[in-house]
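Sample 1 of the test manifest.
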Amino acid sequence: MALLSDLVNLNLSDTTEKIIAEYIWIGGSGMDLRSKARTLPGRVDDPAKLPKWNYDGSSTGQAPGEDSEVILYPQAIFKDPFRRGNNILVMCDAYTPGGEPIPTNKRFEASKIFSNPTVIAEEPWYGIEQEYTLLQKEVNWPIGWPVGGFPGPQGPYYCGIGADKAFGRDIVDSHYKACLYAGINISGINGEVMPGQWEFQVGPVVGIGAGDQLWVARYILERITEIAGVVVSFDPKPIQGDWNGAGAHTNYSTKSMRADGGYQVIKKAIEKMGLRHKEHIAAYGEGNERRLTGKHETADINTFCWGVANRGASIRVGRDTEKEGKGYFEDRRPASNMDPYVVTSMIAQTTILWNP
Amino acid sequence: MSLLLTDLINLNLSDCPDKAIIAEYIWVGGNGMDLRSKARTLSGPVTDPSKLPKWNYDGSSTNQAPGQDSEVILYPQSIFKDPFRRGNNILVMCDTYTPAGEPIPTNKRNAAAKIFSHPDVAAEEPWYGIEQEYTLLQKDVQWPLGWPVGGYPGPQGPYYCGIGADKAWGRDVVDAHYKACLYAGINISGINGEVMPGQWEFQVGPSIGISAADELWIARYILERITELAGVVVSFDPKPIQGDWNGAGAHTNYSTKSMRKEGGYEVIKKAIEKLGLRHKEHIAAYGEGNERRLTGRHETADINTFKWGVADRGASIRVGRDTYKEGKGYFEDRRPASNMDPYVVTSMIAETTLLWKP
């Protein structure tokens, strides 16, 4: 309704210096995003200048009722694409009042790895390809799919256009612009092989920023689907049968890999990854065994293999990288519901710090 | 709604040569929770409530006066910018008097103002931060927004501060309200989605003395005007849905100058003690129907029990960890229901802790 949107879109910069900061954190399941807003007296650009806050952890499965305060530490600021003006989104992580990270806080450990001087020196870059499925709200069935049935088989939908092939583009396009507005390094989008499934990519981003940006991009996506009245799913295999799953392929390079001779560094790194395949898989997302079957452009979950331009491999090296003798590689194993703090830091740890 | 109608509603009158403004006078009606308002034209912008004319209304239509002597007089008490009409137009919070100048029985502001003008109270600069919870209902069925008619959503867990079309229902109302209140000049300090789906909270404060209640009433007015635009109904009932669903409260955070200074924690403990001695009196004034909400479950303390604790959300009064650690700060009275009258609650807390002696 016109008047309601007038109010939602009020530009407060004309009447007050105050801004609204939406503090975002990850809840008790490790995938549920939560947020609440507070007023601040003026514009803030530096997360270190934002006040810590707290929330009721007993309502998110993160603290008992008789000692329920969980403390929010602001870590990264983005412009708020919903409230605009000088209003901000703040990505936070969660601590006990004693200053200890609570168990679901995966950022803390990741941050330690990314602060290691050896890791810093290698300037690890990440490009994450986040796939997701859009579902109709009341039936939890993909949008555009007939309720009680299935669309035609996969084939026409990958990067497809048309009302019979692309379902939900308004969400994808508004997400793309909203993320750019927010200051997220979103590098692209595409329609996926399964209809109703889409992908966006964030990166390249250095170190811990990749995890922060991906989480805020997920937040913006779920806020947009909320507006659109559809549900977003990060399940790695939403529909059984001859339908693709959803992953979060993680592209990775270090300074040495990007320099001349980098291809040898890449091969050594992939070797180390192969030696820790089980450990990585355990941390790459719940339910991944339903997705990594060896079919639908995946490698079987129990197999580690890599290859140039091979989409059926655990790790794929692009033809450009092979040709130029330097570049990056793509870990195709992470599921769409992976925690980017865990995955990015683990790849850095295994390839840079760990020795067999 | 047609484009032309919106154009007219949004006409910016400040461009007209005649400097007339519109003032919406707001008052609390006969059942103590129903807000009423009507508008009048004034010849120019006004920023000082004492410069606004008194007005009157038909009290026999709001259960506040008999038919044969129906005029109730409106005394303007505070001014806010009108977020609906914008420009120089204003909202005016008023209280209500007989033609002879006596506050009518439903006027709770008058007695509160006396308490806040008491020198002992004024010297302590009492601050209030009120957390107003409320539930949004679908218009024609009086069932919460987003809930399936004839059924229930999945159990509580995912909704507190949640996002997504399956978890957060009514955010456009909440966000429009946040900006509208900031625009109006209300000291709104934050919002969050609540544990029960379709339930939300906003906080007003810290505000000093009587202004806390003025601001809360205007914030409630703006909220109900916004739900009117959105075609949903706002409920301030403290336990809108029976069963394993949270109720709605109006937790009132409070501090005085002494509590905010070094050594304030001792002052806080003494104040809480006094509140404990008057538990029954406070409960009686903390909102109708509160016994359906204060059960000892769903983050409340049982209505017949008075207890307090640090970070304890199951207590009558909760002291935050920061206050405990720093030895000074404020405390949270978690007993008031969402339908409490802030004039009554804020002045009673001040009276009990600053003026009353056991």
